[in-house]
Amino acid sequence: MSTELKQVNKLKKTSRRNTNLNDAKFIERLIKISRVTKVTKGGKKLSFRAVVVIGDENGQVGVGVGKAEDVVNAFKKAKTDGRKNLISIPLTKSLTIPHGVVGDKGACKIIMRPSIEGSGVIAGGAVRTVLEVAGVKNVIAKQLGSDNLLNNARAAIVALENLTTKSQVLQKRDLI
Which residues contact 48 (CB under 8 A, 6 or more apart)? Predict the structure, then answer.
């Protein structure tokens, strides 16, 4: 067990940069590692579940989940899953979101509003991590409902997917 705890502590650093050349721009942040068990006829089977946020701090972000028998492989699987689920979000000149937005996932509800320059990221838990990795510097966010870290991260992604720019709205209304 002591080697598993060492691996968990090693991965709990605030951020990690990849050494691969084509992935050098992405940052991964670990949200949570859970030790989960499956009860079988032969006994309990132990495995680990990792929840990771991956982004480039320039408008791209994704949340991934991975499960494996050891922490390192769970982290790698979560990183790969996060890369598959990348989304692009529009940012303003002051590195905030263009308008207020709400995101729902399960029992979690996230309310995000743009904030003035210099206010920073005012959010808690997994939502803060998602916004920082996405590159949003000034925003106010509130979590309502559940405290589940994975659902809060996914609700933040749903909210960020609903963001539109002024030009997109004008094009949708056939005003351009």
Answer: 4, 33, 34, 35, 36, 67, 68, 69, 70, 71, 74
The residue type of 15 is S
Structure tokens at 102: 């709400």
Angle at 48 between CA 42 and CA 52, to 5 degrees: 160
The vertex-78 CA angle with 48 and 28, nearest 5°, equals: 115
What SS3 state is found at 82? helix
Tell me the Ramachandran region of residue 120: left when phi exceeds 0, alpha when psi lies from -120 to 50, beta otherwise: left
Q: Which amino acid is at 37?
A: T
How far is it, in rounded angstroms, from Cα 77 to Cα 94?
34
The DSSP bridge partners found for residue 17 are: 27
Contact (CB, 8 A) for 74 and 46: no
Q: Is residue 41 exposed (0-12), middle (13-18) or buried (19+ Cβ within 10 Å)?
A: exposed
Query: Is pLDDT above 50 for 14?
Result: no
Phi/psi at 53 (5° precision)? -110, 130
Whole-number pLDDT of residue 6: 57
The pLDDT-based confidence of 3 (bands split at 50, 70, 90) is low
Instruction: Give the span between the Cα atoms of 53 and 62, in whole angstroms.
Output: 6
Separation CA 143–CA 109 (nearest Å):
6
